[in-house]
Write a structure and sequence with these properties.
It is a single chain. By secondary structure, the chain is mainly alpha-helical. It has helices at residues 3-11, 15-26, 32-54, 63-66, 75-79, 83-95, 101-121, 148-155, 163-176, 180-184, 212-222, 253-266, 276-289, 295-302, 307-310, 318-326; strands spanning 191-192, 195-199, 205-209.
Length: 342
């Protein structure tokens, strides 16, 4: 767990929540990013509970709400929460916080995990008040992705003070379909000729194979990796990191998002909602639509836990639908002397 997150948890967490977060990281093996997500979601929930139950105030989405300290929310207050309280909180997240269904579903997941811990790992509750809590329905939209032509345009317009690094980042996203958290976590010793070890969600490791484009991009970047860093500024803590900043530190997720945004702007693709995660969608879509990669193989490449998650990439293009109609064996059968379609 990062020092900043650890300090926040120590300073602004009731003991019960603090124990839950450490349990999720040390016993359940959840990643630091996941544990931080639990903390943020449950901090919001307990701010609401404190406001309503302890302060007697209906909160609003303002500075007062976001500055509420939760360290004094007792285990008794947490265990007295009812299903109705949670539904009222979810209404608050919709009406005041303007959370979309995906964000509310994530909060539900965090709340359910918290109360499952309380009922199964402590003696404070015998029955979870949220066992019948339903997850908000999430609209299953088709993933947004770049076309093959747009992907080529992006690759040919990478120009910056760190061109080799940034080109390598874009190449790995478009060819390997990795998550941005996986990319920033790559170390030099994770690369073995044509394979790359990634640390995915839930601290699950997987191996992806590197094609010629990726191998070439990595070699070109490694040739300038240390010279790109200001002399004497290479951080000892980050010296194993593949992707470094000018100051010799491991690139952060936010910095990679900025780099991708700059590259998209240079390619004339800004303002269309593209992001590093959309490049992951792009890689998956290109492999499925143009490379003919089997959906089960795609699941392993992307590091999905179940096939259902991967099936969103089986969407097809209008061109594929048109081609399918043309391949019908009856497509050429016409009635003799039939009038033209007006």
């Amino acid at each position: 767990m990062s020092n900043n997150t650890l300090q926040m948890i120590r300073n602004d967490c009731p003991e019960l929540l603090r124990e839950f977060l450490f349990y999720m990281e040390t016993i359940r093996g959840r990643s630091q990013r996941t544990v931080q997500g639990y903390y943020i979601d449950l901090r919001s929930f307990l701010r609401y509970i404190k406001s309503v139950k302890m302060l007697g105030v209906q909160p609003a989405n303002d500075d007062v709400f976001h500055q509420i300290k939760i360290a004094d929310v007792s285990a008794e207050v947490i265990c007295a929460v009812t299903l109705s309280d949670v539904y009222e909180y979810l209404h608050f997240t919709l009406s005041e916080l303007k959370n979309a269904s995906a964000a509310r579903a994530r909060k539900v997941s965090s709340i359910r995990a918290f109360y499952k811990y309380i009922t199964t790992k402590t003696t404070l509750l015998e029955d979870s008040p949220v066992k019948n809590l339903e997850v908000p329905a999430i609209k299953k939209a088709l993933p947004k992705y770049l076309t093959l032509e747009e992907s080529l345009e992006l690759l040919t317009n990478v120009k910056s003070s760190f061109t080799q690094r940034d080109y390598c980042i874009i190449t790995l996203f478009l060819n390997c379909g990795m998550r941005v958290s996986e990319l920033v976590g790559i170390n030099l010793d994770d690369i073995r000729y044509n394979t790359l070890k990634l640390l995915g969600k839930g601290n699950k490791e997987r191996i992806v194979y590197l094609n010629e484009a990726c191998i070439s991009a990595i070699k070109n970047y490694l040739a300038v990796r240390e010279t790109d860093v200001s002399p004497g500024s290479l951080s000892k803590a980050d010296k194993r990191a593949l992707f470094l900043s000018k100051n010799g530190q491991r690139l952060t997720v936010r910095r990679v998002e900025q780099i991708v945004g700059q590259c998209l702007t240079q390619a004339g693709l800004s303002g269309q909602g593209y992001s590093p995660h959309k490049l992951r969608h792009t890689a998956a879509t290109l492999m499925y639509q143009h490379g003919g990669v089997d959906i089960r193989v795609l699941k392993e490449i992307l590091g999905h836990s179940n096939l259902g998650t991967t099936e969103i990439y089986t969407h097809v293009s209008n061109e594929q639908i048109e081609n399918a109609a043309d391949k019908n064996p009856l497509s050429a059968v016409k009635k003799k002397n039939s009038p033209p379609i007006e």
